[in-house]
Design a protein that fits this description.
The protein is of the alpha/beta class and about 260 residues long. The protein is built from seven helices and nine strands, in the order βαβαβαβαββαβααββ. Bound molecules: S-adenosylmethionine (SAM). Belongs to the UPF0585 family.
Amino acid sequence: MRKWTIFRQNPKHSGVDLSESVCCNGARRLVEWFRKLYRITRRLYPGFGTMLSAAAAERNKEPILTVLLENVSTGRHLRALEISSGTGQHVTHFAQALRNITWQPSEYDRQSLASIEAYRAHYQLSNVMPVIHLDASLPHQYWGGIQPESLDLVLNINMIHISPFACTEGLFKGAGAVLKPQGLLLTYGPYSVNGQVTPQSNIDFDYSLRQRNPEWGLRDISLLNSLAQRNGLYLEKMVDMPANNKCLLFRKESLV
Ligand SMILES: C[S@@+](CC[C@H](N)C(=O)[O-])C[C@H]1O[C@@H](n2cnc3c(N)ncnc32)[C@H](O)[C@@H]1O
């Protein structure tokens, strides 16, 4: 991952240079206090203030946005939760194009949480909420206060195959609870179809994932479909995406 900082670095204190605007002792002490806090925070959380960049996210953000624009209303206010927002590249990209949606990013990894906040600070988007810590394997009651049936969209990109299956189970169970009737769960990634992984590049990728962690690996769409059905969702659409990925669109059943 490539890294760059959103703050201009000052070699003396490696923080934000505010000295020009300091005009009295009280203000100077306050600035010193903030610099100290900033240094301590960077020591505790090395990613603080750093916008991480994932090449895959840079490549797939536009094709995924196209699917969103074709399947999500742009004419009314909606609420969306992104699970495993990663660097923050996706949520800030989508939020710029879909201003009618209030986006809630979330992450499990602490360094990624800081990166998402750095992207938020950089883009200053009023429709992106502060990131919440969210472990997809936990019940939705632990999802940062997200209320049942409060969301129109749950988005999950490239997590299902790079996390233990408990995360996938939690994702579908949680989405079934927090989505409004007719709400949408959109997942993106590589999948196997009827037990077959194709083409060879996905077979190799699946193998390398399982070598890294035996709990990881491509999941079968029929398995995801049965998980969806158990949680009040159904597979409405599959969209083929570049590089042998797919978008899966699961719709929450209405009550009537
Ligand atoms: C390959 S990255 C994808 C990140 C981002 N969605 C993207 O496409 O750039 C996999 C993500 O799964 C997340 N993840 C792993 N375990 C998780 C869990 N228990 N709950 C939520 N997310 C998890 C990681 O933190 C990481 O952000």
